[in-house]
Amino acid sequence: MKFITRKTTGALLCLSLSYSVMAQSPESSVSEKTTIWLSQQINQHPEIIAAKAAMQSLVTNAKGQKLPIYNPELETGYEREGSANNYAVGINQTLDWWDKQDARTEQANFMIAQAKQNFHYLWQTKVAQALQALIVWRSAKKQADIALAQEQQLGTLLDVIKQRQKTGDLGEIDAELTFLSLSQRLNQTAQAQVALEQAQAQVKALLPNWQPNLKILPQQGFAIDNYELSPTLRQQYLNQHPLVLAAKAQWQNSQSDAQLAALNAKADPTVGVSVGETDRETTIGLSFSMPLNIRNNYSTQINAANQQALSLEANLQAVLRQQKFAIQASSATVKTYQQSYLRWQKLMQGRDKRSETLLTKQWQSGDISTPEYLLALSQRAEGLYAGIELEMQFKLSQIEWLLQLGQINTALKQLKH
User: Fold this and answer.
1) How many domains does the chain have?
2) What is the dihedral angle through the alpha carbons of 194, 200, 201, 202, rounded to the nearest 10 degrees?
């Protein structure tokens, strides 16, 4: 069953969250430009810059782990024996007898994977925050416009009432009630304007070069056919979520660390070769040494590494469980808001304009009193505010659902400029 039907030449998110963009279409080109622009804005955020530097530091450190463990050692000696000068020059090399380098390389790969997934999730989060800030700003703008329009309407109404008072058509109570309604509306308009300024500041904090005239979000929201995913597809997105992949890489890294701890408990031999001269005779020497792990067999380090691996395996299961229920909760939330918003749209169906015209005619003809007219105008405004709030919560929940699936790029594919 489709909840939203919308014609688009951009991207369409279907049941499997797959989307297709029409090749070389003007709208797809515009969407791509907007996506690039928004990505550039996000990449300028201080948190992203800091996280990227931290990720690169971890990646560089991990690359260092892939290098050989032991460097050759240069050994020299000199002594004077009577009138003779004795000297020797040698090279010693510790051998990676137990192939510890392979475990270190594997560990480095997991470190890199974890760093990249953590950064990827932070980037998706910042994109989601930016899109949600734009949604909040758009809703605040609509509410501020309605509040200002109502204030102007009440001001006009007050002038009409004063004119009708002069002719004896209306009493003083009508003017007083209108004054009271107008004073309340002034406060509401001020609050709406403050909310708009705050929403705009939030957008600018995330997108420094954004301007109110930029049309970025799709007018009807993001095109999603269905929020009910099959168990197989839900599990697929769960397993591919950046938080899950980061936790998995962290656990695998700890397994490699435990393996490395066990290998480090095994001593590596050192061999050497030297040449020299003693009392005018050339000497050649070979050496061999092997640490004896007698006083310390490093069993405590091995146990600690294994315990850490068990802990991070449990952490992976916890992240999987938490993300699983986060997906379920976000799915239920977005469906609830979608149903309420669509029902509100069906109930209104242009009634906002018709009701305003009808109420004005009835008041002018005397079919309803001024108190009834003012109350009806207030109820009409509340109905419009409710629709704006439902629309905002629905679109915010769309972004949250995509974020919990780790598929925020789906929203980026549907941007416009």
Assistant:
1) 1
2) 110
